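User: Could you check the structure of this?
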Amino acid sequence: MRQGRTPLPVISRWTLALVGLPLVGLTLLGCGQEAPPPPPPQAAIPQPVGVAGQVPGQVPGQVPQPVGVAIPQPGAGGSNFGTITLAPGFMPDPNVSRGTSGGSIDASTLSPACRGWISQQPDHLFVASAPFSNLRVVVNGAGQDTTLVVQRPDGSYACDDDTENRDPVVAGGFPPGTYKIWVGSYTRGESIPYTLGLSELGSTMPSTLGGGAAVGANVGAVVGSAAGLDVSGPAGNFEPVSLNPGFVPDPHVKQGTSGGSIAANTVNPSCAGHISSRPDHIFTATGAFSSLRIMVRSDADTTLVVRRPDGTFLCDDDTEGTNPVVGGAFPPGQYRIWVGSYSQGENAPYRIGFTELSSVTPSSLQ
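Assistant: Sure, the predicted structure tokens are below.
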């Protein structure tokens, strides 16, 4: 005998109400339709906490990046003015390079400690092939306001501004690796010819590098000829100079008269004053000078233009009062030197000095 099915109990609307079940489901089932599954619960979206200076969605502790500003990329290769590779005990010391500062990027976007305006690409790459216990990176901007940004191999930054007057210095231990170096201009839109020095000597400062810097590599010969300069003649207006490193007496001094009819800024935009077509002096470096300075003393306002063997120019005005100074490394070769008068039509007697001594100044020339 089959067992009969036990009849299901009748559930009233009042019973459902008592156990808390929804009445809607009963209505749908009663119409012969299957009830859709309830939608999944919506997860709460966490909202950023009001931390001052934090961008919504930013990971706490992460440095916010400004929107729409180009940032130098740590992995980017190449440099504006070349690569320097050194090992401890390098010679000559300081190692000297040149370039032009500035760019469109605010250096403080790299690190709050950095100042000035730099280019997207580093100006120099420095490769330390072994650990330096103490290395100095110094910049001489010839009296103009420069800044310095050094990115270490680990991505961190060392920055400086105005250690010696308006010239920056970064110093300390440098582990092996590749360092990116930017030389900035404190004022946006300004480009400054500079001399960069790397040194293990504690005595090396921006001022010991000498003023002035080469500008416009391989442009000097074309521009100089177009401006009417004699860039190939065998003689100058006054006595020639031929020196080897370690020369005595130091300083080596000559005399002449400044001025001429050519505006020096037509030779190179960084030059000032008015100069003659023929150079005033032809200087022959018979050996490699790691650090040489050329300076002028005059009672009038004079300027200085030096054409290097590669056709680039060193120019200066008013390093010491109204007396100009240029300096840095001088490879062997022939240099053409013009002493200009700042005012057109003026001619003034001057003394020009060549020195390897940091203690010599224009006012000390006798």
